[in-house]
């Protein structure tokens, strides 16, 4: 862990109960009784949609023999469910929304483990969702090696702050790809680009406003592909930035591609296929998170 990057002055006062921290958008506070019931937390699985969180928690509980599903008090901004040692939580769409979820989740985890960095270091983090592929068939399952912004640099917390680190843990990524291949799933691993918009910033030409021609759109997508980018989504770069800032060693991002952007701007993967991939990814995660192997080496 990187204690220098952790706001310990503030957080240690919360752990000591000198002050109460309010996780405004998660809908609870550090003095909420729910916090004490989360000490068995092993992993945090984040996805954009609240509905995916509810479904994933149901599925997880059934895989764990019917573990109780605990809901956070409010589903207003983010949806959070805890079951079988895993907290499923939504982060909304886009990096500003995801950064709010990350600030509050990291602070909450610090309090759950009472500032014990050895305990925090064991936590596994996964972002699981959807993306647009580049030059790979819709329905591919992409494990992200690093998530970068549209200019292929890592996330910046603010325009005047240094670039962060966009890498996800190599060991976790390799485990997911290997297991997925064994199960015959269409796995791929590579760089992901995180954008600030689904339309203009992903160079779609079917938005309300368009800044690209078919040629400039194609040129950008092929430039990304030539630089090792496999897919585009909207949160990975900030997720990696926060997790690497605190120094978590176990992190992964895994997404299903809904379209091959070299062919189309419109989603081509059917809802049934999306659900099928979602289930496959959850099975992979169940396998990964119930493995207590030595996955400590980050790169
Ligand atoms: C993938 O899909 C969402 C947009 O449809 C966005 O949250 C993302 O990263
Ligand atoms: N999510 C995105 O951000 N882009 C896509 O093309 C598909 C899903």
Query: What string, H for helix and E for strand, traces the elements in order?
Result: HEEHEHEEEHHEEHEHEHEH
**What general outline do the C-alpha atoms trace?**
globular
The average pLDDT value, as a whole number, equals 96
Largest sheet: 5 strands, mixed, barrel
Q: How many DSSP E strands?
A: 11
Strand content: 15-25%
How many helices?
9
| Helix vs. strand class | alpha/beta
Describe it for me?
The protein has 299 residues and is α/β, with parallel strands linked by helices. It is 35% helix and 21% strand. The protein contains 9 helices and 11 strands. It has helices spanning 8-15, 33-36, 50-63, 95-112, 117-122, 170-182, 214-226, 236-246, 271-289; strands at 22-23, 28-29, 43-47, 70-71, 80-83, 86-90, 124-133, 141-148, 187-194, 229-233, 250-260. The strands form 2 sheets. Strands 7-10-9-8-11 form a 5-stranded mixed beta barrel, surrounded by 4 helices. Strand 4 and strand 5 (80-83) form a beta hairpin. The relative contact order is 0.17. Residues 130-132, 198, 202, 232-234, 258-259 line the site of uracil.
């Amino acid at each position: 862990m990187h204690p220098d990057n952790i706001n310990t002055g503030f957080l240690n006062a919360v752990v000591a109960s000198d002050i109460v921290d309010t996780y405004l958008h998660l809908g609870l506070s550090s003095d909420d009784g729910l916090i004490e019931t989360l000490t068995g937390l092993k992993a945090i699985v984040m996805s954009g949609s609240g509905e995916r969180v509810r479904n994933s928690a149901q599925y997880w509980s059934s895989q764990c023999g019917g573990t109780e599903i605990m809901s956070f008090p409010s589903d207003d901004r983010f949806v959070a469910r805890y079951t079988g040692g895993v907290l499923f939580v939504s982060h909304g769409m886009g990096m500003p929304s995801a950064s709010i979820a990350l600030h509050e989740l990291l602070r909450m985890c610090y309090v759950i483990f009472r500032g014990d960095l050895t305990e925090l270091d064991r936590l596994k983090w996964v972002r699981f969702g959807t993306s647009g592929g580049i030059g790979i068939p819709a329905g591919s399952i992409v494990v992200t090696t690093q998530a970068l912004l549209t200019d292929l640099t890592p996330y910046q917390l603010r325009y005047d702050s240094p670039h962060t680190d966009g890498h996800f843990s190599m060991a976790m990524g390799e485990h997911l790809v290997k297991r997925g291949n064994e199960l015959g799933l269409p796995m791929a691993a590579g760089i992901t680009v995180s954008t600030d918009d689904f339309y203009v910033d992903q160079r779609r030409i079917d938005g309300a406003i368009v800044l690209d021609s078919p040629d400039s759109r194609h040129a950008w997508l092929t430039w990304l592909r030539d630089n090792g980018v496999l897919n585009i989504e909207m949160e990975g770069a900030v997720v990696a930035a926060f997790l690497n800032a605190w120094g978590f060693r176990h992190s992964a991002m895994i997404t299903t591609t809904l379209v091959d952007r070299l062919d189309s701007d419109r989603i081509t993967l059917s809802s049934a296929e999306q659900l099928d991939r979602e289930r496959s990814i959850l099975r992979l995660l169940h396998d990964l998170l119930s493995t207590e192997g030595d996955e400590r080496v980050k790169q």
